[in-house]
């Protein structure tokens, strides 16, 4: 065999060893990119003060939901005399047990909010699209929340608080809730993953290359079932954290309000500021997101919901 041929074969062999494993994806990365781009390119940041841009984001989400099968509604409520809107797509029998999948569409301050949380909203829209042609034994409400960010975080003005309270008042049979909170930022380098408690690095590692499923203790059957399914379905590393809500970060999203009303809820996240140094900064742009791995997260959520037996 000639030397050039040996070199070519060696190069090919080396590539095959190092190339990423291909997987059959249902998720459309073009759609994910489109959604994030639409949400992050408003004239001003989509925060509680810029009502025109916040409503522009809500209108975009509503238009995307309207393309799908199901009932699209707005949950409008007032804060200091101003109307804010949760956008909801309900799919499945109205009286069936309910699964809630949610993500907030507002941002904190004056920044694009690509990972926080256009990534979660894009994932929400894509999961809704993927599930539209499936008949499930439960109803799914896909909810885009407003006012998750400061100054309304941990108040009754959060969109997720308003939604969770309405379910409690209806005495709805809620199977569980899944919060998609920052799902697009990944890093392979050592030292790119931080933790609220230093020894956690010994368990979870220092590379920010995984997606986390975060729950509190006592989260019930739904949490166990979803985690088991997600571990089987996901095609990227999954790490689970079940801890007291007092651990910083465990309750840092919309799922906390479902806990407040006694519902089982969990968060799927790239771990937010423990990994993404652009958190709540102007640098949180679309160019920092890994859409290939983000698609794997969305695919995992979709496949898990299909497999749920509760």
TrEMBL record:
Peptidase M28 domain boundaries? 86-303
Q: What are the record keywords, sorted?
A: Signal
Write the signal peptide boundaries: 1-24
Taxonomic superkingdom: Bacteria
Question: What PANTHER family does the record point to?
Answer: METALLOPEPTIDASE M28 FAMILY MEMBER, PEPTIDASE M28 DOMAIN-CONTAINING PROTEIN
Instruction: Tell me the protein's name.
Output: M28 family peptidase
């Amino acid at each position: 065999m000639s030397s050039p041929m040996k070199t070519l074969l060696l190069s090919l062999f080396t590539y095959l060893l190092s190339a990423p494993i291909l997987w059959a994806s249902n998720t459309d990365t073009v759609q994910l990119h489109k959604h994030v781009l639409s949400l992050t390119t408003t004239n001003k940041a989509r925060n509680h003060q810029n009502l025109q841009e916040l409503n522009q984001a809500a209108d975009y989400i509503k238009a995307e939901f309207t393309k799908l099968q199901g009932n699209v509604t707005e949950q409008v409520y007032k804060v200091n005399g101003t109307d804010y809107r949760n956008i909801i797509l309900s799919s499945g029998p109205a009286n069936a047990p309910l699964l809630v999948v949610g993500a907030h569409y507002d941002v904190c301050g004056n920044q694009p909010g690509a990972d926080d949380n256009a990534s979660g909203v894009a994932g929400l829209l894509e999961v809704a699209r993927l599930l539209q042609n499936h008949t499930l034994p439960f109803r799914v409400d896909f909810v885009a929340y407003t006012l998750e960010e400061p100054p309304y975080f941990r108040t009754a003005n959060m969109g997720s608080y308003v939604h969770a309270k309405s379910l409690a008042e209806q005495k709805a049979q809620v199977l569980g809730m899944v919060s998609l909170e920052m799902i697009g930022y990944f890093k392979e380098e050592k030292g790119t993953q931080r933790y609220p408690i230093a020894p956690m690095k010994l368990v979870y590692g220092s590379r920010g290359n995984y997606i986390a499923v975060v729950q509190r203790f006592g989260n019930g059957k739904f949490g166990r079932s979803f985690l088991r399914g997600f571990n089987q379905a996901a095609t990227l590393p999954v790490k689970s954290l079940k801890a007291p809500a007092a651990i910083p970060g465990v309750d840092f999203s919309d799922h906390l309000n479902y806990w407040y009303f006694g519902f089982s809820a969990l968060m799927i996240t790239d771990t937010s500021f423990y990994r993404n140094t652009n958190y709540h900064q102007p640098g949180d742009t679309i160019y920092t997101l890994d859409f290939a791995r983000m698609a794997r997260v969305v695919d995992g959520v979709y496949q898990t919901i299909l497999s749920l037996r509760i």
